Amino acid sequence: MIVKWRKSTYTGGANDNQCVELGRLAPGVGIGLRDSKDPDGGRLTLSPAQFAHLIEQIKRDPAC
User: Fold this and answer.
1) CA 47: distance to chain centroid?
2) How many CA atoms are closer than 13 Å to the CA of 27, on its beta-carbon side?
3) Which of 1, 2, 26, 29 minimizes the number of CB atoms within 10 Å of its CB?
4) Among candidate residues 61, 51, 62, 63, the one with its CA nearest the CA of residue 23
């Protein structure tokens, strides 16, 4: 499966390479996160529930 990575809409724009990219992985695998500066490097894989929890944490405390 080819993962379609996308940058957050909160970055500086399409040419901003200082951000995290998200990608929906194979069904049942979850959400992938990677560093846009190192797309071939490692990635963090979260279940949909873990990803939702991460987003809630960021909304509550954007400084974390």
Assistant:
1) 12
2) 0
3) 2
4) 51
- Residue of 53, 46, 23 whose CA lies nearest to 36: 23
> According to the model, what pLDDT value does residue 39 have?
87
Return the pLDDT at 56: 92
**pLDDT, tens digit (0-9, with 9 covering 90-100), for 10-64:** 665 556 666 889 999 988 889 999 988 888 999 999 999 999 998 899 888 877 6
Number of domains in the chain: 1
Domain that holds residue 48: 19-60
- Contact 7/16 with Cβ under 8 angstroms? yes
Residue 37 domain-assigned? yes
Q: Which two tokens stand for residue 2?
A: 């080819």
Q: Quick one: how far is CA 46 from the chain centroid? A: 9
